[in-house]
Amino acid sequence: MVATARELATAVRAGELDPVALTERTLHGIDAANRVVGAFRKVRAEEALSEAREVAKRPDLADLPLAGVPVAVKDVAEISGEYAGWGSSAMPTEVSTTDAEVVRRLRAAGAVIVGLTRVPELCIWPMSDGPDGMARNPWHPAHTAGGSSGGSAAAVAAGLVPVAHGTDGLGSIRLPAAMCGLVGIKPGADLLAEGGWYGMSAHGSLATTVTDAALMLSVLAGKPELAEVGQERPLRVAVSSDLPLTHAPVPKPLTAAVDHVADVLARLGHQVERATPQYGTAATLGILGRWFAGPAEQAEDLERARLQRRTRAHVRLGKALRTARLIRPGTKTRWLARAERFFGEYDVLLTPTLATLPPKAERWHDRSWAANAIPSIRVAGFTGLWNLAGYPAMSVPAGRHPSGLPIGVQLVAAPGGESRLLRLAAQLERENPWPRTP
Prior knowledge:
This is Amidase. By secondary structure, this protein is α/β, with parallel strands linked by helices.
């Protein structure tokens, strides 16, 4: 899929491209590549073609922002006629009779939903694999595509679809976006809260360009103005590669990408200086507690024996934390006060997206909880605190590791700052362009 979502929608609206032919072409590409990248849990071939025929007949076709555009939806959203699998054989398989709100908005915008993308069980891990397959990084298939929106990232990075839906509870959009060389945005909790993990999770978008990510986000949020990515004024940008809690060293290629982007922003006229938020130990421990307790709450009605062993251990720990009433709102309140003070002085924070290089693509679901938890905690150190705060954050491609793996940087803004992040990312895309697909 070389064309962007905007280009495809423009061609469909103008009558230059038939939605059915576009969907057929997309399904052919998925059939050829999905067995390699493992992006999809379910490909909706017949359903997608039916949807494309309906889009072609719509009287408002010329006004649809995603007219005929093939999109992928993360396997956590309710879709009429499908079940949300959440990467688990313990989840009920009764099909839904309704669409989730974000799916209704995609359909209303003219999108064609070609499939449900792979996730790790209950979206706990930053590696998207299970007994039925694994999502691999299209740039470097020996590495994971990330998680929990790993299947969505793999589908976009492999060029199977131009845009995809994801959710982000502790970095689940930004981490796979960084690993797969994509633009991935998690909006603020006030815009697109997903409802899970004590309010930390939000719906968002993954794309190969900033304008496509903005277009997809505008549809998911029901806010057309988000699709208009204009020019940004000079901003106060704080730059930090100091890892919260552990202050462990971050691999040099990841920090070098941050330094390079900081230099680009300075050349563009932004006020750039080194500054680190007062993260605090309690806030970091607070997100770890919610990482345990959120899935434990979701698993209450599931048959525990059908969960993977890594998940059973995770859920046991989460249940103990919930029983002891250790998930306390004061943790978030105190962190929010520090974050607000920091963003009173700065407009945007620039950090690495990943704290380590991506894990390998392996059968992580067969391993112990500790074998999964250690690399998960290590790789996600920069992302989760902004879920606790409910602040918008995104990952933008910034370079390449000597191995060929993409490298991303994270941009964070105060609530309501989604458009600011998109405008700044668009500046970076113009000044520091990245390859869109392998």
